[in-house]
Amino acid sequence: MTHYDPYDFANRRHIGPTVAEIGAMLEICGAESLDALVDETLPPDIRQTAPLAFGKPLTERRAIEAMRATADKNRLLVSLIGQGYHGTTMPPAIQRNIFENPAWYTAYSPYQPEISQGRLEALLNFQTLVCDLTGLDVANASLLDEATAAAEAMGMANRVAASKQDAFFVDRDCLPQTIAVLRTRAAPLGWRIVVGDPFTDLNPAAVFGALFQYPGVNGAIRDVSAPIAALHAAGAVAAVAADPLALTLLKPPGEMGADIAIGSMQRYGVPMGFGGPHAAYMATRDAHKRALPGRIVGVSVDAHGNRAYRLALQTREQHIRREKATSNICTSQVLLAVIASMYAVYHGPMGLKAIAQRVHRDAVRLAAGLTDLGFRVEPEHFFDTITVAVGPFQGVILKSAVENGVNLRKVGEDRIGITVDERTRPDILQAVWRAFGGHDLPYDEAWPEQRLPEGQLRTSPYLTHPIFHMNRAESEMTRYMRRLADRDLALDRAMIPLGSCTMKLNATAEMLPISWPEFSEIHPHVPADQAAGYHELIGDLSEKLCAITGYDAISMQPNSGAQGEYAGLLAIRRYHLARGEGHRTVCLIPSSAHGTNPASAQMCGMSVVVVGADQNGNVDVEDFRRKAEMHGEKLAACMITYPSTHGVFEARVREICAITHFHGGQVYLDGANLNALVGLARPGDIGADVSHLNLHKTFCIPHGGGGPGMGPIGVKAHLIPFLPSDPRSGEEGAVSGSAYGSASILPISWSYCLMMGGRGLAQATRVAILNANYIAARLADAYPILYAGERGRVAHECIVDLRPFQKSAGITVDDVAKRLIDSGFHPPTMSWPVAGTLMIEPTESETKGEIDRFCDAMLAIREEIRAIEEGRADRANNPLKNAPHTVQDLVGAWERPYSRQAGCFPAGSFRTDKYWPPVNRVDNAYGDRNLVCSCPPPESYEAAAE
Description:
EC 1.4.4.2; Aspartate Aminotransferase, domain 1
């Protein structure tokens, strides 16, 4: 009987190389076995002794059944709770062709514009949508959620305001989770949060900025033009948190004078998902565009002058400016922003307005019926939210509502809040009326049709660009989404060997449950008994993550790795404060650290002291010791990445932790490279006190073209009291708008753990190390491998040094990266952590065949460089300098000293299924000099469609 097990998910589906291929790769690496290779790679003093005991791994079918059983424990009621989360309908065309399409959800952030033109166009549509709705000039794409967007707006206001006050005013009608996150962000920076009524409590001369909610959390629609004008007169900045659906009917923030607008695009077709993920937006005036956090898509040209999209003004971002960046944000919510933009493209302006009118009409009818029942309904003017005075009957009515299948919102001790949405049906209104003691009410023709304030009605046009009108028919909509997808290179086409990014398999079995309504349609504020499945899932996944990391508790709240860094450093800060050591504000960070590290430290009020690296790329331990001693009593923390950002397991990591602890500091171990540790070593055993875990790297949540991500943090026991708090309280301590962050994508990571089992997870780590060492071995004779451990091994990634070729052949890292596109690959990480290098991380999911194809392409590029060095190829006109080549190059005039074959079909490229980039090399400088961040003129779309 055969020993082949077709249902062994770890070895037959997730891990790429077969047993025979692993043997052949080990031979190339010069290792006797996989265990021997690991022994030569990891320092022996960090190895964990006990294997991960997760029980027998589940097959895909059994895992799906387990997920179904868990999902069924969630009770799916109609939630009219509001507070920033709304029922919405994702059009099936978008669900099938984007949300469930690996061409969209497995892509990486669009830092390589030539292979990202599809999602860049979708994001440009998003920016255009936001600018039109808000009446402002420039928007980003995108932010993590509305609460953190508000915190970013506060930080931006502080940067651009003429006022030098240290207080920020917050409208008491703002969402409670927003107020909580604002308090958290302000505290370490020494800013005061003042909450009150903007018409009676705001002193413009005493603040650097203010945030208004529009409409308010309890439904009020107020014209804040006068408070905004007063703020401007005092040199302060005004921000408005606005509902994007309401803005189709209401005067936009820009017309009221707002400098910044923020909000959530969740109700544009993105399910509530027990809190996320959702894309937030931010827009501002042109004068402030360089202070805008996050990514901005701009229009540029390629090498032939054709229109091309790219990320603009990147010098603002953390990967370049580090502690001086406008924000620490890296991963955002690209996939969700794309869905929101497509929702607008699908419905068009008339459709969006019709949805908003129907929502408002239902709210008006609901209010009228409750008034007829004898209840006092507030406010006078509203869009979708009302507040009902119920006196001592609050508990009875809330319970009755649940019995009628509806969740309502408790407001104080004697009121109930209700928010309707696009999914509200007549029978739902009847259920609410029954909860309030009424019987089925007929619609009364005398009921008003509108309760919007006349002076706040929108008169300005929006979404006038043809892209929001030309896809009414689903046939055209489907083709449009397909055209955009075909322009991009994602994991469904080829390996994405980005160092420090861990672009591994996102298995379909892991992805299926996130579409189930039992997971996707749960409001984050439902009673605990309605989310029993979620709590079971989160509890078990947390236990597994603790076992993997050696930590004592996990918080799922951070929505990205950068947010995890921020949350972890805040825990350290609060720990020191609780011990009466608030003077500890110095953070030691290696020069090779991720750019988010220093940016996050700065956001926590810490001073960054940079530690150098030795000639082997390791943290210079003696420099570290000197600086720890120098700052002694002020040392708060160190931030290290392990294995290091140079792709090496540093042998003295325990010593670094011990030095930090000796001087009273805490150790933050960045979990970006955890894929090289799982099952083999645990951060909590090495000496770390806190880490974030990139679930969108190590634990298989897809990158989504730049988000969603999740960065939960694990901590040792002494830091548990300082984990993020529940944002619903409105008090300091929360870092995201919902208690469990982007909870609806946690089933992906849980399924991964269930199907891999403890042994499978450890085997995945071993093979990730093997694949990286195999690449290093195959390329070592052609390229310098920059760093290795004491026994000549790399960790899960390796750095190829291209700097010598700048002098010998005039070839840059850009040239090599773009030439890899011709072979059908996403380029590795460029010029980080060392300028002029490529950092390559294949992950365990890539097969030997795909890795060999990549190595063949790299070796062929080396021969092309050699031809330049030897004078056989022109230094300025060669396949590398002209890369990437497009199909237009192939069929057009060819005035180049090399053949079409050599230019367009290099080693590694496919013939029949070749990926053709839609544009040639993009001119980055042109795009920043001529900044355009919204949809280009209509005629350009006609040309693109031809």
